[in-house]
Specification:
There is one protein chain. The longest helix has 29 residues. The protein is elongated. Helices cover 51% and strands 2% of the residues. Strands 1-2 form a two-stranded antiparallel sheet. β1 and β2 form a beta hairpin. By secondary structure, it is mostly helical. The protein has a domain of 264 residues. It starts with 85 loop residues before the first helix and ends with a helix. α5 packs antiparallel against α8 and α10 packs across α14.
Length: 438
């Protein structure tokens, strides 16, 4: 306090006595300040996090408004259960209702700048109140989910196939090889039906082996040994018993094929295993053994089946040769760009003309052919041979290969030469019966 002369009074430590009539503010219970002892230290383990630290981004879970007045909101959570299979998870998900939680699991975390209080929005409050009305989607079956995932990941069904490129073909080399093959085939036909039957059986077995090898390279699991054995037995059976041997041997293939895959060391895809075996048996065996049905001694009077089979081979070679040279020189418009861009419409026309010439001039040289019958057969062969080429191109495109093999220089494998013949042989067999040539 200041004295009357304006100087400051020194503190005396005494508390002045205040009159009861004094209206000034007074402090009761005041004591004289005295020196304290040592200041106690604060335990650092009990300190709260300083407000100056950087935010962690964690937001506490807030109980929804409609459950705020509940006695025990956590009683809605089901008790823990032991889950082993898919059904246990689905049952638990159906019994759990997460609507009592007021937190959106996909909502962005608030930043410190959004902590400022704003005026309540009536629309946002209404949306929060309707949170319980939103229905959860029904659980998706696991196998269906896996199928969708595989289908989405593999939009291209040919993805992952093995790819083997073939070398560039030489027209001169292919021509020389073709001439040599024609000479060898003519010599075998001159030897008689037994030699021709052996030739057909060997060619069909090699063709089936090449197709099985192509499928194995693409990742399939065909029964190669069983399939080749079935083709050989079918060839011999048709030669001895005629077309009636096809049904019993096909039945035996189905039965033994089932036993084959039943005893397999590992589980394989049925389509890429058993299905491939049956397909190759049908494509190479059933269609190819139409030649055996014609050259069989019991098929035609006077053994004219050799003449029909040889005519089929000559007409097919003429069609392939005409399509090759005309398509290479004049071909511009592809027949089917997706399957075989090298086959052109001009090549098909050239192959048809060459087939008609051979059917009218070469085929009638052997009995019982005539020019009219030769032209009729040439027209039918010109239609089916391109279809056989396209089927082989479809299979090779699926497998991702250029040729089935390299046994024949300039031509590829055996299947690359008999693809059209596999369609021509059954056509000629039914044509001889339709025209009553037997």
């Amino acid at each position: 306090m200041r004295s009357e002369d304006g100087t400051l009074d020194e503190p005396t430590g005494e508390v002045p006595v205040v009159s009861p009539f004094d209206t000034r503010v007074r402090v009761t219970g005041a004591e004289v300040a005295h020196a304290t002892g040592e200041v106690p230290r604060v335990d650092p383990t009990t300190l709260l996090q300083p407000w100056t630290d950087a935010p962690t981004g964690q937001v506490p879970i807030v109980v929804a408004r409609d459950q705020a007045d509940a006695v025990d909101p956590w009683s809605n959570i089901p008790a823990p259960s032991w889950r082993e299979g898919e059904a246990d998870w689905t049952a638990h998900d159906e019994s759990f209702d997460a609507s009592f939680l007021g937190v959106d699991p996909v909502a962005p975390v608030e930043t410190p700048s959004s902590w400022a209080q704003t005026a309540p929005d009536a629309e946002s409050d209404e949306e929060e109140l309707r949170f319980d009305e939103v229905r959860r989607p029904a659980p998706v079956d696991e196998p269906q989910r896996q199928w969708r995932t595989r289908h989405h990941q593999r939009s291209n069904p040919l993805e992952g196939r093995a790819v083997r490129s073939g070398g560039n073909r030489s027209v001169a080399l292919a021509t020389l090889t073709g001439i040599a093959l024609v000479v060898v085939v003519l010599a075998i036909f001159y030897a008689g039906p037994v030699a021709v039957a052996v030739l057909v059986t060997v060619v069909l077995a090699l063709g089936a082996a090449e197709v099985f090898a192509g499928y194995r390279a693409a990742g399939a699991h065909p029964a190669t040994i069983l399939g080749i054995a079935a083709v050989v037995l079918l060839s011999v059976g048709v030669y001895e018993k005629g077309p009636s041997a096809v049904a019993p041997l096909a039945t035996l293939l189905i039965v033994f094929g089932f036993v084959w895959y039943l005893n397999a060391e590992k589980t394989v895809d049925v389509v890429d295993g058993f299905g491939v075996t049956v397909f190759v048996f049908t494509w190479v065996g059933v269609l190819g053994t139409s030649a055996m049905a014609m050259i069989s001694p019991h098929a035609y009077v006077g053994r004219h089946g050799l003449a029909y089979t040889l005519a089929t081979i000559l007409l097919t070679v003429a069609n392939d040769s005409g399509a090759l040279f005309v398509g290479r020189w004049f071909g511009k418009r592809p027949l089917n760009a997706r399957l075989s861009p090298n086959k052109t419409i001009e090549g098909v026309v050239g192959g048809t003309l060459a087939t008609l010439v051979v059917g009218a001039l070469v085929v009638p040289l052997s009995s019982p052919w005539t020019m009219r019958l030769g032209l009729e057969a040439a027209i039918a062969i010109s239609v089916v041979v391109p279809l056989g080429d396209l089927l082989e191109s479809m299979v090779k495109r699926t497998l991702g290969i250029k040729d089935f093999g390299r046994v024949l220089p300039g031509h590829g494998g055996v299947m690359d030469r008999i693809d059209g013949l596999l369609f021509a042989l059954p056509t000629m067999y039914f044509l001889t019966h339709l025209l009553h040539l037997g």
